[in-house]
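Chapter review: from sequence to fold.
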Amino acid sequence: MRLAIDHTTHYRFSGPVAQGLQRLRLTPKSSAGQSIVSWDIALEGAGREVEYDDENCNHVTLIAFEPGVNEVTIRCHGVVDTSDESGVVGRHSGYLPLWHFRQSTELTQPGPKLRAMLTSLAPGEDLLARLHALSALVRDTVEFASGHTDSATTSEGVLAAGRGVCQDHAHVFIAAARAIGAPARYVSGYLMMDDRVEQNAGHAWAEAMVEGLGWVAFDIANAICPDARYVRVATGRDYREAAPVTGLRSATRDETMHVTLAVEQQRVEQ
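The token string follows.
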């Protein structure tokens, strides 16, 4: 499948920004099941400083705001070819050892609510079957609903709320997968919706390591293993390591952010 993606983030500040830096993880990965045909990041009100691959093999673009700007626009657009690999990403590669992905983070620290949830997970030696069951358990435990959590909500906080979005489902699944002994990581990316082209935000899911298969992806929010409609962009132990945009700025009080995103299938000329 060939997917065309157009993703724009526009910031408007209440006053001139004296200084601002942002780290962009907005370039899709070349990996099993996907290859980049074309990709570009266009900037208004900012300029590129440096590009590099981080410890998670995410391609990072570091940008600096032009001094005194009131608005900054980041537009990513391109084309990615994908195939349905039944969620199997494959062998581990990169700079970090697998044990790194067994380590808890502030957002995925297991607690009493997570341990209580895991009492409902049937024991067994087949890890892949247990991970599928875990995905269903998390989806049944955490109702999909926006407005109850934010990017700082921990997996325990999500379970306390009983509601959350795709990011929250991923964090709870990751914390639980690590608790049963599987390395696990967070994925940020894009999903082509079946019922619309225009979207309000990107998507998030999780991956766990299964011996003999490698990394296997689970979209808990949609109760499916990612297929050809998905584009992997960045990975990390949690959202903070795979966030599309992070940064800092000075000398402004307030800001508004507006995101537009379109993901659609593109015809491939024979």
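Two observations follow directly from the output. The chain has two domains: 2-82+245-265, 88-242. The longest strand covers residues 2-17.
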